[in-house]
């Protein structure tokens, strides 16, 4: 029988307690030691960084931080973590008792990471301000999404799948790391994306790195399919025409056979 390591092991011995004199005195040091271990475990379980249960009656603190490698967020109550998050996170603070502790994120740093000039950034801001659909979408993002889909406008309903990713920063709408392009600039963006006359797949990959608008993929496909230069130099995959035999004038005039190998002979 191996040495007991928990109360289950002691229980095996307790089953025979009436046959063993002074068993309680003998096992007392083990029980005390186990009790100390349990108290230590209770302390570890009830202290950070172990998660605590969420209490609807206590105020919430949301702490976020970001760097060049990622984004992190922790939801706290009474300075103890309730939940952790990373990568894509968005805070909703419906109660005035909730408190947000955010990282001092420099907007100019985000813009510097985009392969877009500051002049073009300013142009996109002006076009976004003049775009009615993006203005409505930005207002919904800032004020909060309505719980009922029917209460949203048709143009905004199409963005419901991305609502946890859409943010408004300094007059620009972002979906993850991509800028939402207003309608008036979409044709210009298509021209710039296809300057090198890449194929459909490569052009889509290039666009998804920094840009986004509704039906962007189909717009790229149609633009490239109608590109005169691409159509002019596109390889023509013509099939070799079939060559049929002359129709014989009477039966058995022409015979044909398949070649095969049998016992090393053809």
Automatic annotation (TrEMBL):
Residues covered by the Reverse transcriptase/retrotransposon-derived protein RNase H-like domain: 37-89
Short name of any one Pfam family annotated for the protein: Integrase_H2C2
Span of domain Integrase zinc-binding: 181-234
InterPro entries in the record: DNA/RNA_pol_sf, Integrase_H2C2, Retrovirus_Pol_polyprotein, RT_RNaseH_2
Highest taxon of the lineage: Eukaryota
Full protein name: Integrase zinc-binding domain-containing protein
Species for this entry: Mytilus galloprovincialis
